[in-house]
């Protein structure tokens, strides 16, 4: 979300930008393809974040630049536009550490003539991530479900996320299901979110426990494979099984209670005293 | 919305803890004889067993499970890193949660249907039982609908609770959680808030020493006629407890 908002900011910037040079457009386009395209389109279509067509006509250039470079600060500054974007798109745009020059290039690209956001062009999300090796995929698989712990002690992915893959147990359902995340966000988007979580719950979980570059690459590789081979794997929905196991466990517990307290008083507390009195008179 | 969240997850927890501490102290000092579970076992015992035992054993296991994840989040995450251990932990926790639900339901049915119990029931008793019922239903819902709670509790809620302890609340993650989980958190603090005003206060005077005290011998004079007869030898009328 943060990423989307950032891209939205970028589009706004281009509105007030002057005619960009060819170099700036090329550079901006490259940056866009690497960092923005996972969540934003160049037309009006909503992806993870807003489509960026005409964004520079909707927003002030300085605001867009500030948002591109430090979305976390803008979102945390009670800025009404940023707050509105967050409310609409729910996911805050992550801070990608975009430099001043990169921001200018992006603004030029989004606002320049002959293409880009203003022209309503649609850009497909490319996969610019290098194919993962088999070792990386296996590492990602083990990292995802915790068989191998993250170097900095972060929680395993399957605490909150599920993915359809026969090699891993069913994951959590607190957060998004990730089987098709690679198709939806593309390699750069997935890498960006894992490396710099834009979601508050994920941010807190990995605070001071950031994943290493190797771990991020392995997870991206695993998710790419899970996405590509999803038709070959069976979903593991534990819902009903967990419920049945719980009910069976409860029945066993009730039996244990009955067994442990088999000598409990089942009648009135003073019944036996009364009976003895009657017996002895 | 943010103001409401801030109230529920920052102000209310502190209010609940303060009311709990000072309320319990006040009630214990000023109205000490009311610090009791107000047991109704003398009035009815059969149904009580199937209510109080599943409820109390379940709530103890579930409570200490939450406490462990709060106090030892790293150890909890390390335990959960092996998938089988995670599943065993979650199923066990859900089982004891259902035990609480079964027990509480039995207690409520008993309270409503038994005339003896109804006669000693207060509005506060009903309010507390409904609060507990809502809390345990939400807990079971979370266990099934938002698995694996043991892990994300340790990753997100333990830091939140510790931030409250350190008087530097970190609420970003809590604000973003689903409403079911947020309601469960608020419910927990609401229960804490209600302790001084209800029979829930009995847990602060739980007779833990009963666990390790010596047995109490109960001696019964079986044959009262014989024992009063001066001609009966002692060996025949000796008291016993069998």
Give short descriptive properties of this protein:
heterodimer, A: 281 residues, mainly alpha, Cytochrome Bc1 Complex, Chain D, domain 2, 3 domains, 13 helices, 54% helix, disordered N terminus, B: 242 residues, Fumarate Reductase Cytochrome B subunit, 11 helices, 0% strand, elongated
Low-confidence spans of chain A: pLDDT under 50, at least 5 residues? 1-25, 113-128
Please give the count of helices of chain B.
Answer: 11
C-alpha end-to-end distance of chain B = 67 Å
User: What CATH architecture label of the largest domain in chain A applies?
Assistant: Orthogonal Bundle
The level-1 CATH class of chain B: Mainly Alpha
Radius of gyration of chain A: 28 Å
- Based on DSSP secondary structure assignment, what is the total number of beta strands of chain B? 0
CATH class category label of the largest domain in chain A? Mainly Alpha
- Counted beta strands of chain A: 0
Percent of residues of chain A in helical segments? 40-55%
Looking at CATH, the homologous superfamily of the largest domain in chain A is Cytochrome c-like domain
Helix content of chain B: 55-70%
What kind of sheet is the major sheet of chain A?
none
Strand content of chain B is under 5%
Provide an overview of this structure:
The complex is a heterodimer of chains A (281) and B (242). With 281 residues, chain A is mainly alpha-helical. Chain A is built from 13 helices and no strands. The longest helix of chain A has 22 residues. With 242 residues, chain B is mainly alpha-helical. Chain B has one domain: Fumarate Reductase Cytochrome B subunit, CATH 1.20.950.20. In chain B, 69% of the residues lie in helices and 0% in strands. Chain B is built from eleven helices and no strands. The interface between A and B is large, with 48 and 55 residues.
């Amino acid at each position: 979300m943060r990423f989307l908002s950032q891209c939205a900011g970028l589009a706004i910037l281009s509105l007030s930008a002057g005619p960009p040079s060819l170099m700036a457009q090329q550079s901006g386009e490259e940056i866009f393809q690497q960092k923005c395209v996972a969540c934003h389109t160049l037309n009006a279509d909503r992806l993870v974040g807003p489509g960026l067509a005409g964004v520079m006509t909707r927003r002030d250039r300085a605001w867009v630049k500030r948002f591109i470079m430090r979305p976390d600060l803008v979102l945390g500054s009670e800025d009404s536009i940023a707050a509105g974007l967050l409310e609409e798109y729910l996911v805050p745009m992550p801070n990608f550490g975009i430099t001043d020059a990169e921001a200018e290039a992006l603004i030029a690209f989004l606002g320049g003539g002959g293409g880009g956001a203003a022209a309503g062009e649609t850009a497909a999300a490319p996969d610019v991530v290098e194919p993962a090796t088999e070792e990386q995929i296996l590492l990602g698989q083990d990292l995802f479900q915790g068989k191998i712990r993250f170097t900095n002690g972060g929680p395993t992915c399957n605490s909150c996320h599920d993915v359809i893959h026969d090699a891993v147990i069913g994951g959590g359902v607190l957060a998004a299901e990730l089987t098709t995340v690679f198709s939806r966000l593309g390699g750069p988007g997935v890498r960006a979110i894992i490396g710099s979580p834009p979601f508050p719950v994920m941010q807190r979980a990995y605070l001071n426990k950031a994943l290493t570059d190797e771990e991020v690459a392995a997870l991206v590789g695993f998710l790419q494979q899970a996405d590509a081979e999803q038709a070959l794997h069976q979903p593991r929905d534990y819902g009903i099984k967990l419920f049945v196991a719980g009910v069976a466990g409860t029945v066993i517990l009730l039996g244990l209670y009955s067994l442990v307290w088999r000598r409990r008083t089942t009648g009135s507390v003073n019944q036996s005293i009364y009976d003895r009195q009657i017996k002895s008179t | 919305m943010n103001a409401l969240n801030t109230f529920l997850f920052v102000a209310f927890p502190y209010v609940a803890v303060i009311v709990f501490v000072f309320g319990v102290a006040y009630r214990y000092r000023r109205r000490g004889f009311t610090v009791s579970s107000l047991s109704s076992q003398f009035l009815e015992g059969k149904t009580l067993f199937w209510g109080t035992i599943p409820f109390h054993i379940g709530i103890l296991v579930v409570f200490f499970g939450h406490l462990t994840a709060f106090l030892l989040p790293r150890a909890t995450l390390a335990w959960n890193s092996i998938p089988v251990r995670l599943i065993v932990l979650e199923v066990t926790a859900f089982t004891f949660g259902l035990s609480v639900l079964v027990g509480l339901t039995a207690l409520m049915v008993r309270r409503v249907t038994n005339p003896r119990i109804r006669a000693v029931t207060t509005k506060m008793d009903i309010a507390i039982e409904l609060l507990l019922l809502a809390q345990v239903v939400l807990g079971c819902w979370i266990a099934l609908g938002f698995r694996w709670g043991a892990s994300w509790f340790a990753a997100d809620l333990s830091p939140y609770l510790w931030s409250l302890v350190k008087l530097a609340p970190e609420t970003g993650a809590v604000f973003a959680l689903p409403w079911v989980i947020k309601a469960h958190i608020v419910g927990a603090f609401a229960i804490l808030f209600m302790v001084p005003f209800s029979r829930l206060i009995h847990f602060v005077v739980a007779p833990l020493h009963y666990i390790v005290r010596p047995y109490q011998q109960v001696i019964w004079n079986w044959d009262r006629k014989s024992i009063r007869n001066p001609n009966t030898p002692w060996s025949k009328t000796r008291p016993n407890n069998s």
